[in-house]
Every structure is written in structure tokens, then in C-alpha cells.
Amino acid sequence: MPFSEVIVDSVRKPSFSIRIVITFLLIVFHGYTTPARADNNVYRNINIGAIVDVESRIGKEVTTAVDLSVQKFNSNNSNNFKLHIHFKNSTGNPLQAVLAANELIEGNEVQAIMDVGTWQEAALVAEAGNKAQTPVLSFAAPAVMPPSRSRNWPFLLQIATNETGQIKCVADIISWFKWRKIIAIYEDEPYGGDSKVLSLLTESLQQFGSEIEYSLALPPLSHLIDPKEALRDELTKLREKQSRVFVVFHSSLSLATHLFSEAKDVGLTGRDTVWILTESVASLLDTVNSSVISSIEGALGIKTYYPEENKAYQDFFTQFRRIFRSNYPDEDNSEPGIHALRAYDAMTTITNALEKLQNNNITSKALFDTISLSNFSGLSGKILFKKGVLLQNSTFTIINVVGKRYKELGYWSQGLGFSKERNGNDTDIYDDMVNWPGNIRRVPKGWAMPTDAKRMRIGVPGRTSFEKFVKVTDGPNNKYSGFCIDVFLAVHKILEQSYPLPYEFVPYNGTYNDLIDHVINKTFDAVVGDITILANRSKYVEFTQPFAESGLSMVVPVKSEDYEKAWMFMKPFTLEMWIVTGAVFVYTMLVVWFLEHRSNPEFRGPFKYQLGTALWFTFSSIFFAHREKIQSNLTRMVVVVWFFVVFILTSSYTASLTSMLTVQKLQPNVTDIDWLKRSNSIVGCDGDSFVNNYLINVLNFNENNIRKVTSEYNYDGEFKNRSITAAFFELPYAKVFTNKYCTGYTAINPTYRFGGFGFVFQKGSPIAADASEAILTLSENGTLRKIEEDWLYPPSECSTSETTIETESLSLQSFWGLYLISGATSTICFLLFCFHVLKNFRKYENQSDGSATPTEESVWIKTKKLAQYFHNGEIKIPDRNTAAVFAQRKADEWISPRWVYVSTSATPEHPHASPSTEIEMAQTSDDNL
Predict the structure, then answer these.
(1) Residue 700 has what DSSP assignment?
(2) Does residue 375 contact residue 383 with C-beta atoms inside 8 Å?
């Protein structure tokens, strides 16, 4: 009676042999044997090899799942084949696996091999399969797929996805909770396969600004004489590291259980610690006892997702548990894991291929080609190969260890990220669902947080140039004060609302760069002081949000400006303003003359007299001192608007000039950095700060021309002794210095900006981010402003003194509307007057034509008449008797302000024969326009 043959190599233990016998009995009594076929056809035996570590939990699950698959296939009477499974025990040793593969190929003549081991083991087994052209189905995959994979191992099929998905999932978890540094822990492989995983993890973390602080490679448990002592020594080293985020990957379950137990004993599983377990450990948590689970309570893990709701899984689950319990009664958990599902799916690919090759000659090559075309939904997911690689999107279940079990938090898949539901993307599910180590209600810092026993050591500059920022008073108990100290105390008060943060100040008498170096080498946990944020410093330490602005500022002595200059009176207005004002003045003068000189005797007379009168009237109106009377209503309208313009201009001019003459004006005696360099002038700066190097390396000052000044109190003396021409300060220092010497020095606006003042923490410290948030809170609620007022604002005697005040000249931009109104009014009045004059002139001509013989007149003559009419108010009609009289009268002769109109009725009947008559036009009421 045919049945599945299970053969194990000679290194198996007696207990395993007993389990095989029990399996055989179960097969017999549960009906898994296949009766002889009615047609008496001969079955063809197909040998399949399996290389597993039979004593491991994974090996036990795989052998059970393979047996189930073989039994199902062999029980089908329609098949012409019967499977015989040959198990070989690799004991977890890749070299033993290679020997087992050769034995299966040569001794058992297997037509396919399943390898359940590491990727390094699978690669060696695939080499053996290449020589015999035997398909090898691997349960492992590399972290990074080699480009030459299909060429190097043409008969290798991966039934598992590569580790890229796991690494990206771990990186996303770390990024989501904003942990900056991690410690990677893994079981060292003798063939160095972990280096690629570390490289991939490092690259993935760098995308989110995180990094691996330390990687701990642990030897296999079988290589350790005293595992407890060896692991304790290694974990003790981790206590010296700052990171408390531990990522465990590529570890056997036996090593992981010892690791968790020792980590708890040395205090690495408490508050603010994080443990992340990859699939090699997380998928087997169901199989370990409760004491191991409780030692890593709060840990996060990732397991490959597989559907459990379908009928195929439920049937497999029931049969698997029954057989597994019978074969391994000592195991507490009999539920199948992902490895059992993959083993069943691997056998399904083989059996499906055999069914397709029922009537064909079965060769290893034909079997490989048929398996490569597999396309079905298996228990572990979609089974579809491309060039020997499983095309299956990586989807993981995120678990959280709680008590003696674990709970599922949600899912992660490539392309979608985190989600609470299988196909969702609500990525905020973890913040309030995770049970963290130590039962804390917030996200762990993942950092070695200070305690009362080990306080945070904070370095403070003990030698500063400006004591308003940091001042250390020596004594039995040093006192610390200053702007920076008060800001830190306010920040610390906010942080203490979330978690305790014990600290101690430690004064340091050295340069600022040395102080930062002590943070890098972990002598200090942080630095509080006037530390400038610079790019080269940020590479090695963590800065907080700046709490004070910073930039390079040059401070120089000031000199009083001589305001009694000859042309000072011209400064209230700009040149453009003066020109436009003069143009409006002249235009207004001409319009007034034009409107008044026909009817107002004060604007009559010789042309020079008329021009002088108009000019004097317009100019004297500026001071409201004019005495000339105006008669035209149009003129009055022009003058009223002109008075308004004059009032505005004189008021503005007086105010601007008064400001220029009364406000103290101090100007810097040096404003150009290039001049300082060209003239080799000596400049001063703080020798302990970065400014000294900045002047040399960036601004290209001669090192010999830089004088180092150690205290703010020495700068004034250096200037007065003319030892320095200018001093370079960071902007906050310049503000303090100029506020103290408000009448003697001024600061030139900064040309070069820096990152500001910030507190310094070790690289990756989560406290830096919390402190930055606290600084923003202080800025928003006004506390930071109040601290600035207490320390940095000027004293009362300087609060109203400004050394760089300069009243700007008034420009046309402020008055063009006023000028527009004045010009428009004058123009409108001028046009109205012209219209009225033309109307009267036409009336006059009509009256003249009615009493005289019409004659043809040229345009020139008419124009002369109009001009004469406008100028004299009369038109002379010469004849023989009056020609001499008219010729003797001068054109600029005084004309009476009132004229007598001579009626045309007095004209002789024949005007051409009568003597010439002088016609005068009397001023009418219409002339008062």
C-alpha cells in the first residue's frame, strides 16, 4: 500500500524517530493511505527532498505541513505519481545543508529540493542543484537581490519575499515615532550575509534622518560556553550607548529568548526603551512560554500577513493542529505559522506541476519550468514567479506584546504604509493603541534619559565676553545667571510637565568649539549658553530651535553730524519736490496775472511792472503778507486753492526742518568692511568664539589685524585708545554693547546671517526636539519676549536715544495729489476766462461790423485785434486825423481802469469819409468774472 515516505538523516535524535512512527500510524488509521488502483496501473514514485533543522520550531512546522500536502496528493487516485519525501537535518549549519543536498541528489535521486534555512544556506544548496539541474525551492530571500541571481542560480525558486519589505517597514516605524538613533542586534552568520541587511537598513533610515548608532552581532547560541554570561557582557556595553531603540533581526528563537531575559535583568526593557522584532522572531512569539513574552512587554513586532478567513486555511489549520499535537506533545502551541504555510504552498507548486505533467516524461528541467509557471492563491498569499522570484507584495501585521500575549495593531504594506484595516491608510492608529514598556502613556524617547542617580550633565561657558547672556559666579555652589540660563529654566519647566529631567550645570573654561567637542565625545549631555548654530556644528550635535537671532555686526564709534551746513534749508524737500514746487509757483503766478491784468489797475502798467506785481503777489502769499486786491472771482478761486497748497507746504517744511535741526544725529565714522581691509585697520572680536576664524577664512581679514578682546568692558577702552577701529560682534552682543554705550557707538546692519543661539544636545537626542517645541511655546506666549526685556533691552537713559535716526526729505510722492488739484483749478479758471474773453471779443466785432463797411481781414489781423483787445481793452481805428496821435502813444502807456464806450450811433454816416474815431469799451459787470 503506497504512502508518503519520510526519511531523515543519521544525525536525528531518537525522539524524532518516534514521532515519524507516530506519523505513520496516523496515516494508516486516519485514512491517508491510498488503496490500490482498480486498473492495476503501476504508480510512478517521485522523490522530493527537504532540508530542515528538524529540532527547531520552524523545522517541526515545515515537516508537519509537508506531510499534510503529500498525504493529500497521494490520496488522490487519479494521480499517476506517488510522492516520497526525504527529510535531511541541516542542524542550522550551511555546510551540513550542502552535504545533505548532494546526498539527496545523488543517493535519493530527488527531482526537487526544498530548503528551509538562511539565504546563505539556500545559495549553497542552489549551487549543488545547478550541477544536477535539480529545482531548489528556498524559504529564504536576500535582503538585496543580486543582479546576477538568475545567471548564478538558474534552478533556484524563492517561495518567500526578500527582506527589503521588512527593512522598509522597520524604518517606517522608526520614522513614525521620530526615533533618531537605533541599535541593531542580530545573530552573526559565518558567511557575512548580515552586512547587506545592515546596509539596507542604514540607507532606509537615512531617508528619515535616523541612523544606526551601534550594531551588536551575537554569535550563535551553540557557540557560547556560557550564554548567560556572554549575553550579559554584550548587553552591558549597550548601557553605555545613548539609544534605547533595539531592532532584532536574523536571530534564532533560542538566542532571542536568552537575549530578552538578560536584557530585562540589566535594565534595558524599562521606561523609554523600545524593542522592535522582525519576522524571524515575531513570527514565533506564539511558540515561546509566557515568561519570555513578559520580559519584552511593550515590544513591537512585524509578521507576514496571510488571510485566515478562507475555507482552505481553516481546513489546513484543523488538520495541522491535530497532527502537530500528536507529533509534538511537548509543544505548548500547535498553531501553524508562516513557515508552515509556505511549506504547504511549496508542496502545492510541486504537486500542481506533477498533475500537469501526468502523461509526459518528468524531468527535473520540465518540473522546474512547470513550477515557474505557477499562478494560484496559496495559504501564504499569491504564488506567482518571475525569473524565479516570488512576485508577492510585502504586507505585514504590526503586533504589540501585551502581558503574556500580543495584540495586532494594524498593517503595513509597500505603497500604502500603515493602516488599521487591511486595505486602509489611516496612519494615526498607533499613537494611543500601543502598550509601551513601563506602561508609560506617551511615546518612549528611545534614549537613555537622565535619572536622579545619573543626572544630565550640562556644560555652561564659564568664560564669556558678555555676562548678560551667561554668568558663572564661583563659590561652593556655583551660581548661574543670564539670558540663556533663564531661557533654559523656562524650557525645563515645560519639559518637566511631560517627564522628569534632572540635571546639573558644569562650568567649562574653554572655547566654544571645545565645549561642543565635549558633547560629541559624550563628556556633556548638553550645553546651555550663547552657542551659535552653524552648519559644521550641526553635523555632529543636535541644536534646538534658536531662541535669539544671530548675525555678524560691525560696531564703530560715531561722530556728530554738523547740521549747520550752508544748504541745510534745502534738505526738507527733495530736488524733484523743489522743481515741481517752483513750476506750480510760476504757473499760478501767470494764471493770476492773466486773470487780473485787464481789470485790476494794480496789475496794469509796463510789462516789467506787471510781471513784478504778479511775482510779488504770489510769493508774498506764501507768508500771507500780500496787499494787492483781486477783483476777478476766477482769480479768487485760484488763490484760495493756492493758499491751501501754501499752508500744507509750509507746515510740512517747518516740521521736517525742525526735526532735522533738533534731533541728535550721530553717524558712524566707518561703514565699509572693504575699507578696513584695504587700510589694514585693526579690528576687535571675541577670541573664544567662531568670529575670529570667520573674519580670517570668510571675510579675508589679515590675522595680524585682528585683536582678541576677552570682555565687553574692554572694548570701550580699546576704541578710546585707538587700538581698534571697529569691532565685530554677533548681533545679540552688538545690541547689548550699543545699548550700554548708546551715545558713543553704533552697529552697522549685519551682512552675514547665522542660525541664531540654540541649546546643544548629543546627536539624535529626542530632548532637543522637545526643547525646540518648548522654545516655540515660550515665543508664542510672550515669555521669551519678557526674558529679553529683562536682560537685553536698553536702560532708561538710552531708550529714547537712537544713533542712526535720520529724517528723510519730503518727496513728490507725498504731495502730487495736492499739486494736481492746484494745477487743475488754475487751468480750469484760465480756460473759463479765455472763453469769456473770446465771447466778448466776438460781440465787440459784431457791433463794429454793424457800423462800418465790411472788409476782408486776414487771420493775422484778427489775431492782432484779439491781442490788442485782450491787452488794452480797446481797438483803435486810425484815420488821417488821428493817425499821428495814435502813433505818438506808447504801447506800454497807462490805461484808465475804466473806459467809456462810444456808441456806433455817434459815428458819421459814411465812416470812410469821417475822421477816425477812437472806440473804447467800458468795463462791464461781466469783467468781474
Answers:
(1) -
(2) yes
